[in-house]
Design brief:
- Pfam families: Response_reg.
- This is Two-component system chemotaxis response regulator CheY.
- InterPro entries: CheY-like_superfamily, Sig_transdc_resp-reg_receiver, ST_Response_Regulator.
- It comes from Saliterribacillus persicus.
- The chain has 120 residues and is α/β, with parallel strands linked by helices.
- The protein has a single domain, classed as Rossmann fold (3-Layer(aba) Sandwich), CATH 3.40.50.2300.
- The chain has a five-stranded parallel β-sheet with strand order 2-1-3-4-5, sandwiched between helices.
- α3 links the parallel β3 and β4.
- α2 packs parallel to α3.
- The protein is globular and about 30 Å long.
- The two termini are 16 Å apart.
- The mean pLDDT is 96.
- The site of magnesium ion has 6 residues, from loops.
């Protein structure tokens, strides 16, 4: 079994894209969440090796979810998924403990590079 990943994004097609990239590269996508609250719940349930976390989501945004997950496990490995123009939020997230970030639209090479580095 590959290393396990929880994918968090409110857009189904984004989750599908990341899942496709990860699955093709040997990672095991164990769960998906569509908002921050669900992300925290699924993190506790699945204890994945890594989380890809969208920033802008309904209910609970990705930065709040990151902080909540860090309270559960200070060593949680989380990579933020940001859109253009979200630099300030990315800095916020890194300061709150995010390991790295990937920018939409995703390039498979960059996604795998970031994830393998964080998991090594
Ligand atoms: Mg979003």
């Amino acid at each position: 079994m590959g290393q396990t990943v929880l994918i968090v994004d409110d857009a189904a097609f984004m989750r599908m894209m990341i899942k496709d990239i990860l699955t093709k590269n040997g990672y095991d996508v164990v769960g998906e969440a569509q908002d921050g609250a669900q992300a925290v719940e699924k993190y506790q349930e699945l204890t994945p090796d890594l989380v890809t976390m969208d920033i802008t989501m309904p209910e609970m945004d990705g930065i709040t979810a990151l902080k909540e997950i860090k309270k559960i496990n200070g060593d949680a490995k989380i990579i933020m998924c940001s859109a253009m123009g979200q630099q300030a939020m990315v800095i916020d997230a890194i300061q709150a403990g995010a390991k790295d970030f990937i920018v939409k639209p995703f390039q498979a090479d960059r996604v795998i590079e970031a994830i393998s580095k964080v998991l090594s």
